Amino acid sequence: MELTPKQQIVELLKEAQNILVLTHQNPDGDGLGSILALTLALQKLGKNATAVSLELPLVAFSFLPQLALLKQDFQSNKDFIVTLNTLKTQVEKLGYKNLPSEHKLNIIITPNSGSFVKEDVSFAYGSAKVDLIFILDSPTLERLGPFKDTNSDLFYQVPTINIDHHAGNDHFGKVNWIDLTATSTAEILVSLLESISKDKPLLDEDIATCLLTGITTDTNSFQNQNTTPKALTVAAQLVAAGAHQQDIIRSVYKTKPLTTLKLWGKILSRVYEEQPHRFIYSTVYIADFAEIGAQQEETSGVIDELLKTAPNIDFVLLLSERRGGVHGSLRAIERNLDIAQIAALFGGGGHSAAAAFEIPNSNLAQSLSPILEKIKNFQAERLGLGVQQQIEIDKPSFS
């Protein structure tokens, strides 16, 4: 009988010792909580586990335990190998001379007879000192951002475990555990931790807090429509294990830096309603971030604020201008709408309640109108709107 993804992961972990744990760039609460929880659990099992996130966490997540475990860079520790062909000439003596003032190291090889020529020397990199890679909450390898670009060979050399809950996942791993019914990757990890150490429970206060952070943020504190009975049961289990629920609520939902409040003010002042197509949208520009001194990640949460004050609306769209292009975040209000279908119009993905897409190498001046037109056409067909109901309304220009 074929092993399930969870069983395959348990088997791979029996042999692996040096494990790398990753999540998507600009990580949210689920990404951060998941990699911290898994890293802590693996270390409790005696594994050499390393969590990497190239960006510093948002201030809202500074309460997370063991944040110092997160590495902002990664060296795969590959040896640089110098190979000498000794078929014709043997080595009598090998030495080296360090020249710090010249920033050089001379390797000195003395032949026992004859001489070496430059064709006898070749160079290579050794294998990365990583046995296994976990990639959490990332639907594609590209979502790893610069890490993927600078370590691309790593994903060909080392088995990769892909754990996620997004419908648009590319199934890029050797093992792919994609649970579309889960509210979050953290929810999936609770089941994994129970399986990899049945004799000695791994859940403790720190791990439980990290996992509850993931579930809480991906359900907007259990207010979003993706909240399931299972999610509530798992959350109760984590609280019973010592998760600091009040710290999560206080830090993520009740405390906001001044820069975040100013940025949200900009976004909320630009909310525009598209009727009869039943959605609202807003925009945020690169110039806004520069003016306020805010980070792109500080847009997180504002879309959930829009959900609370949007009657007669099917979904909310936030378009953020970034240096690499335009990022679109979508949240569904209407339960019968699969918001991932709209993200898919632009090559994006997600799940029925929340999704996202990227328009690379673009800006809002170029992309805003085409994006809105595509979405309105989708909604017109979905809602059965007649031609007269689709008369274009002049839009305000925001910059």
TrEMBL record:
Q: What is the lineage of its organism?
A: Bacteria, Candidatus Nealsoniibacteriota
What is the protein named?
A: DDH domain-containing protein
Q: Name one GO molecular function term.
A: nucleic acid binding
Q: Which SUPFAM superfamilies match?
A: DHH phosphoesterases
Q: Where is the DDH domain?
A: 18-215
Segments forming domain DHHA1: 283-378
- Source organism of this protein record: Candidatus Nealsonbacteria bacterium CG23_combo_of_CG06-09_8_20_14_all_40_13
What InterPro entries is this protein classified in?
Answer: DDH_dom (IPR001667), DHH_sf (IPR038763), DHHA1_dom (IPR003156), Oligoribo/pAp-PDE_c-di-AMP_PDE (IPR051319)
In Pfam terms, one family for this protein is: DHHA1
